[in-house]
Amino acid sequence: MQTGGFTDIEGEVASTATELVDRYSLLIVLGDGGVGKTSIAAGLAGIAGGDGKRVLCVTVDPSNRLRTALGLREQSGIEEDVPLDRFGFRGSGGVFRAMVLDANYELQRLISRFVKDEQTRERILKNPFFNEAARLSGTHEYMAMLRVFEALQSEGYDLVVLDTPPDEHALQFLDAPQRVQNLLSNEVFRRFVFASSGVSKVGLKVLRWRKLILGGLAKIAGQDAIFSVLDFMLSLAPIFELVQERAKAVREMVLGPKASAVVVFRPSLRCEERLFSKISLLRSKGIKVSGVFANKVYVWEGGTRLDVGVDTIKDAFATEPAFGLLGPQEVQRLASRCIMLAALLKDISERDRANIEKCRKGLGNIPLFVVPLMGQDIGDLESLAEFSRVLKMSMQSFVGHPEG
Predict the structure, then answer these.
(1) What residues have CB less than 8 Å from 51, skipping those under 6 apart?
(2) For residue range 202-257, what is the model confidence (pLDDT) as tens digits?
(3) Residues 269, 243 contacting (CB under 8 angstroms)
(4) Residues 349 and 363 both lie in one domain
C-alpha cells in the first residue's frame, strides 16, 4: 500500500474545476462500478462548456437515466448537442456534445474512411467475422481511443472527457493502442497473414498440416471459420500501417502533457488501499493523475453534537398542518424515527470523513475533491445541471493535499 505522497503532477496543481478543464485537452475518468464516474464525466463536460470550451463527452454504455439526462436521442456513435442554456450558461460561447460509443459503428467508420476500394469494403463488411471482430477484447477500447484522437485532431474541440467502464475493464482502454501496435508490428503475425494470401479452402487444408497452430484452430472452429478470419485479415492488410500509426499516435496522446486521468471513488472501509493501488498502476503506465473525486459523500451539517430531542421534533411537527391528521402516538413515533435517522446520517458522514482523511494523507500533491451525495437521481438536464453546479462548488473548496 502507498504510504508516502504521490508526486504525479509537475508544477502547479489544478485546484479548481476551471483550472482542471483549462489545463488538459483529454480527461480520462476512471473508477469502480457504481461510484458515479459517468456523472462526474458529464458534470466536468458541463462545467467546461459553461466556461466557454468546446467539449465532447464520450461515454460507454451509460444508464438509461443519464442517457436521458444528456438528451441523447440518436444511435450510438453520433455526436449530439447538449443544450448549455438548460445549465444556465446562456451566452457562454461554449459547446457541449456527447456520444455513446459503439465499437461496431466505429469499425465501420474506420473501414469506410480508409479502405478506398468499394469491393474490398463490401467484402470486409459482409464477412461473417466482422461483427465478431467488433466484440473482440481490445477492439472496443481501441476504437474508443481512436475516436477521441480524431475528435481532438479535428480541432473541433478544446476538451474531450472520456468516461470509461468499471476498473476491471478501464485499463484496457489505456492499453489497447499499445496492444494493437504490438500485434500489427509482430513479425510472426505479419508473416502468417501475408503468407496466407490467396489460400483457398483446398490450399488451407494443406497449410493446416504444415502449421500446427492453424491446424489446432481449424479443429476448434472449423475450416469455414478459419477461412473467414483469414479473408477478413487479408482484406484489412492494406490499412495495417495506417492503423499501426494511429495506435502509436493515440498512445502518445494519452501519455502526453495535455492528457490526464481523474479517479472517482466512494469512501468506504479500506478504500485508500484500492485508490493508492489504482494510482500506482496508472503511474507505472506513464499516465498522470490530476485529481481524485470522493463522490456520493454523506455530509453532516448539523454540528458536532445531536442535541435535538424527540419533544423538540414533536413541537416542530405541531406547526405543520399535515401532521394534524396524525394521532399523538403516531407523531411520537415519527419524531423518534427522525432522531434515529439523523443519528445514522451523522454516523455515516463521520465514517465517510475518516475514510476520506486516510486517502488525503497519501495523495501527496494530487488534489482530492469531495462531492456530496445528491438528494435526487440525475434523470434530466435540470438535475445534471444542478450536479454540475454542485461539482464546481465542491472543486472550489477542495480537501487538497496535506501540509508539510
Answers:
(1) 18, 21, 22, 92, 94
(2) 444 444 444 444 444 444 444 455 555 556 666 677 777 787 888 888 889 989 99
(3) no
(4) no
Question: Cell triple for residue 162?
Answer: 472520456
The CATH number of residue 372's host domain is: 3.40.50.300
Q: Are 397 and 101 in contact (CB under 8 A)?
A: no
Mark whether 179 and 267 lie in a shared domain: yes
pLDDT band at 348 (very low <50, low <70, confident <90, very high): very high
Report how far apart, in Å, the C-alpha atoms of 300 and of each of 285, 311, 344, 361 are.
38, 22, 10, 22
Is 219 part of a structural domain of the chain? no
Q: Are 121 and 222 in contact (CB under 8 A)?
A: no
Residue owning grid cell 405541531: 318
pLDDT score for 79: 93
| Strands ordered across the beta sheet of 159-163 | 80-81, 95-100, 54-59, 159-163, 26-31, 259-265, 289-297, 368-372
350: containing domain = 310-354
